[in-house]
């Protein structure tokens, strides 16, 4: 690819973005490095929004493979991608949008044991879209220690109303059982809960409470989820990242 072709393509792609954010913000986005960990119904849409908005360097991380049950909510899930690694399938989709974005696709799992392999301090922003609570706590702790900007997704499952999606410091969230659990775990480790997260204040139904009890007892059946909610979570996370990098920290 030539540098001129890259400039022309990205200038055309981000023309409407430039009208909103300005050319200096676009330059910052072009130079920024962001990592999205967890590429399910939240993280996949966050990653896509970041590429469409002009992020120049994006790492995407997930160890799982696309399955038929992902078709209802994940950006990279198609009949033709079932069985492929999620990170690989999403990278292919993102390169269809912008072949000039620097995308690193990591088919691996972020855990406390693997945290040092990710060099989180080299990123401007870290997006936590992990479902597993142990891995989520490990990522939050590592990201905060690294000095990178951290934005975290709380529970999008069992919600039906996308208008109830909110952004707030984790310490100020209300009505989200996952947020309560994460706060509790972080407190035991002496880690503050002042970083911004995306959550829903929609009351979860009674059957969701029963499902959480099932999970606590070791039952690993899936949670119910809808793309019209999970995608909004992902887009809200992308907005937090873009506004931080562009210099509009108003959310």
For the structure shown, list the relevant keywords.
single chain, 251 residues, alpha/beta, Rossmann fold, 7-stranded mixed β-sheet, 9 helices, 14% strand, globular
Polypeptide structure, described:
This protein has 251 residues and is α/β, with parallel strands linked by helices. The chain has one domain: NAD(P)-binding Rossmann-like Domain (Rossmann fold), CATH 3.40.50.720. It is 43% helix and 14% strand. The chain is built from nine helices and seven strands; from the N terminus they run αααβαβαββαββαβαα. It has a seven-stranded mixed sheet, with helices on both faces. α4 links the parallel β1 and β2. α4 packs across α9. The protein starts with a helix and ends in a 5-residue tail after the last helix.
Helix content: 40-55%
> In the CATH hierarchy, what is the superfamily?
NAD(P)-binding Rossmann-like Domain
Could you state the order of secondary-structure elements as H and E?
A: HHHEHEHEEHEEHEHH
The CATH architecture category equals 3-Layer(aba) Sandwich
Structural class: alpha/beta
Number of strands: 7
The geometry reads as globular
Order the strands across the largest sheet as they lie in space. 3-2-1-4-5-7-6
Give the total of domains: 1
Radius of gyration: 18 Å
Average pLDDT works out at: 93
Per DSSP, what share of the residues sits in E-state strands of 2 or more residues? 5-15%
CATH topology: Rossmann fold
The largest pleated sheet is described as: 7 strands, mixed
Instruction: Give the number of helices.
Output: 9
């Amino acid at each position: 690819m030539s540098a001129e072709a890259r400039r022309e393509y990205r200038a055309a792609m981000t023309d409407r973005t430039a009208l909103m954010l300005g050319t200096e913000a676009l330059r910052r986005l072009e130079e920024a490095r962001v990592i999205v960990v967890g590429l399910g119904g939240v993280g996949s849409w966050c990653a896509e929004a970041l590429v469409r908005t002009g992020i120049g360097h994006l790492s995407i991380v997930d160890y799982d493979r696309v399955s038929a049950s992902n078709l209802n909510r994940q950006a990279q899930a198609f009949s033709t991608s079932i069985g492929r690694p999620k990170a690989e399938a999403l990278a292919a989709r993102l390169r269809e949008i912008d072949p000039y974005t620097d995308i690193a696709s990591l088919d691996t799992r972020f855990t406390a044991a693997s945290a040092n392999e990710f060099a989180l301090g080299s990123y401007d922003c870290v997006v936590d879209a992990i479902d597993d609570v142990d891995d989520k706590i490990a990522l939050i702790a590592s990201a905060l220690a690294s000095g990178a900007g951290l934005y975290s997704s709380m529970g999008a499952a069992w919600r039906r109303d996308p208008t109830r999606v909110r952004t707030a410091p984790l310490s100020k969230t209300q009505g989200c059982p996952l947020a309560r659990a994460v706060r509790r775990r972080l407190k035991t480790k002496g880690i503050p809960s002042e970083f911004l997260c995306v959550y829903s204040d929609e009351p979860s139904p009674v059957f969701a409470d029963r499902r959480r009890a099932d999970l606590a007892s070791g039952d690993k059946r899936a949670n119910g989820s809808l793309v019209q909610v999970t995608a909004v979570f992902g887009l809200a996370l992308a907005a937090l990242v873009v506004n931080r990098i562009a210099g509009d920290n108003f959310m």
